[in-house]
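can u do me a favor
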């Protein structure tokens, strides 16, 4: 059964009385070259976790390259279709639920999966949120997430892979480089999906190192990353302004004023009038640590 063929998709859906749910981002892949590329070497011999099976087109590819495939799919109306299209894929298990609510640690621990890779064509409406959640998950320990290979809207792909100084560079770019090594893999045109969306897509890969890339020093213990992103978010909240303005507003109750932020920027070798988009991840970390020390000293 050729799951990238529109006639096959329509026939399957009508025979099982299922219709597309636009609000769940159901744009299914019909370009036959994309899934094999996405499912490639990274999942080989490992556990692959897919978010959103649709009618199972990528799931089938993953089933060939990974030892085990765990799929999290929210739409239970797809059950009879997937029972048919994945009938011969003995290494696939479907968990019915919302990926934003499923306890991924528990799922993986129960299945004794110590290492895994994510591979998914994400629903547009929640793509950024899902990736951010996965990045935070990757830093939490017991189960090791190796990589996140995902199809997302092209603009979202640009934001996750952007470098300092570009207009796409923002909070998610800092998060991607804080937790992983992001890579833009390839662009996918809107005509590669059925129904066709109004935007183009791209596949990105976030390679997660076995040891956390950066460890922050300071007083906040486990809360450290949260406090760091509090700083990053405040810096980008008024991205056209000098970052000393929004950052001092955010940390005013910790006794940090505009001049403190300017001094901290100077101390890390940056222009005190810098805007958020001019700071690399390492510079944000230096700024965070410098400001944290100023809070502690008082
Ligand atoms: N993998 C299929 C493909 O490539 O053709 C389908 C991809 S489609 C863009 C997104 C899939 O994610 C849909 O099957 C949708 O039902 C599912 N989905 C949407 N929101 C979800 C959520 N919060 N948790 C789990 N699955 C979700």
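np, heres the sequence
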């Amino acid at each position: 059964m050729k799951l990238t063929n529109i006639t096959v998709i329509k026939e399957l859906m009508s025979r099982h009385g299922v219709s597309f749910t636009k609000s769940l981002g159901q744009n299914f892949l019909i370009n036959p070259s994309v899934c094999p590329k996405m499912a490639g070497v990274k999942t080989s011999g490992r556990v692959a976790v897919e978010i959103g099976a649709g009618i199972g087109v990528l799931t089938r590819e993953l089933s060939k390259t990974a030892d085990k495939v765990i799929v999290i799919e929210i739409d239970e109306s797809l059950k009879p279709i997937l029972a048919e299209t994945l009938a011969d894929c003995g290494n696939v298990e479907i968990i019915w639920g919302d990926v934003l609510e499923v306890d991924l640690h528990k799922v993986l621990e129960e299945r004794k999966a110590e290492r895994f890779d994510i591979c998914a064509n994400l629903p547009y409406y929640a793509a950024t949120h899902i990736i951010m959640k996965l990045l935070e998950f990757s830093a939490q320990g017991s189960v090791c997430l190796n990589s996140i290979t995902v199809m997302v809207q092209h603009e979202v792909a640009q934001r996750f892979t952007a470098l300092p100084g570009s207009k796409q560079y923002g909070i998610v770019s800092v998060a991607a480089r804080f937790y992983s090594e992001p890579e833009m893999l390839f662009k996918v045109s809107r005509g590669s999906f059925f129904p066709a969306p109004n935007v183009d897509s791209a596949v990105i890969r976030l390679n997660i190192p076995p040891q956390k890339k950066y460890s922050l020093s300071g007083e906040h213990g486990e809360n450290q990353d949260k406090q760091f992103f509090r700083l990053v978010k405040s810096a980008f909240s008024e991205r056209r302004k000098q970052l000393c303005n929004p950052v001092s507003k955010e940390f005013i109750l910790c006794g940090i004023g505009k001049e403190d932020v300017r001094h901290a920027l100077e101390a890390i070798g940056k222009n005190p009038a810098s805007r958020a988009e001019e700071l690399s991840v390492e510079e944000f970390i230096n700024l965070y640590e410098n400001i944290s020390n100023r809070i502690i000293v008082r």
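The chain has twelve helices and nine strands. hope that helps!!
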